[in-house]
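On to our target:
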Amino acid sequence: MRRYLRIVVLCLACGFCSLLYAFSQLAVSLEEGAGGGGGKPQAAAASWLAGGGRGGARGVGSAGPAAHPGRSDRYSLKVQPAQRMHLAVVACGERLEETITMLKSAIIFSIRPLQFHIFAEDQLHDSFKGILESWSFLQTFNYSLYPITFPSENAVEWKKLFKPCASQRLFLPLILKEVDSLLYVDTDILFLRPVDDIWSLLKKFNSTQIAAMAPEHEEPRIGWYNRFARHPYYGKTGVNSGVMLMNMTRMRRKYFKNDMTAVRLRWGDILMPLLKKYKLNITWGDQDLLNIIFFHNPESLFVFPCQWNYRPDHCIYGSNCQEAEEEGIFILHGNRGVYHDDKQPAFRAIYEALRNCSFKDDNIRSLLKPLELELQKTVHTYCGKIYKIFIKQLTKSIQDRYDRPPKER
């Protein structure tokens, strides 16, 4: 008799646990449906985005400001929402041409449609609209224009951090509350292979990872963070935030460990305290704050190889990105202003080739030969000596995208 009683009690216990699990899953689903994965960070964002001011929506379009406070209207070019890859950039000052060239490189090689989120100073909006609308015949991308938006009580402090508007990227999870995942890039980025390929790295995140970046340096002897930083930083040489892939749903949900309080803080609550604590010790602004966050939460970062964020530092003193030597450069990052001076002519040659390229298939196919001739003129520099890595992946991308018959693409 006792044996049967034990079996009955065990069955009841299992049934009770199953019910608890079912109710917990239902609660999570309801929370996601109601808040878009935002939770508290969404509420924090609403306090400084709603009601006009610096967070007011700008522009004209089908979705008015009242419907989406804190963001501008979306310009639809007939792309299905479920298929889009989301790419964000922040443009201020003289960065219009650079940004347009980056967007063009993304469009030329990508396979799936793109959704651009462009944060720009008001005086640049009309120029962006004019150029992007002239590309509407492509029907491969949508775009949204947004004003530069910071928390009103600290707006001046955030805008002056490092370069103008650069720290806008820190607030993207709070502003783009409907976006699950996002690729953020600086304006001086050029895609030499499809955005689809870096987007696919989201599937490689483990259960704790929320973002992906490349190391700041491969060679510690020339590393900046390990030699000069006065604040915590990720890993041996820090990370570079010029190319940052984000699962923003996870970012909004996560409670972050920190060195300010024993209590873990969400994304919307950790940024200002970090700035107050470290503002006298940081040199690279928002990138330094990201390094501090991931120093305390290393399990949250996926690190991708240097070929996904190839900068002059990888060749200025000799080649130190092994992955790029083997497979070519996937994403070129022309920081230090190298697209616009003569210090690194190999970088400038790639930039000018893509800037002057049209969307015509024949024009894209024909850019390789003159580009290689131009790169051969740069062999007097360390980067120019290895110029073939600059066109290795680019050649493959053009062949895969434009040389194969449509059925094989």
Notes: Strands lie at 74-75, 85-91, 114-120, 141-146, 181-185, 189-191, 211-215, 239-247, 301-303, 331-333. Residues 60 and 407 are 39 Å apart (CA to CA). Residues 2-35 form the longest helix (34 residues). Confidence is low (pLDDT under 50) at residues 21-48, 50-79.
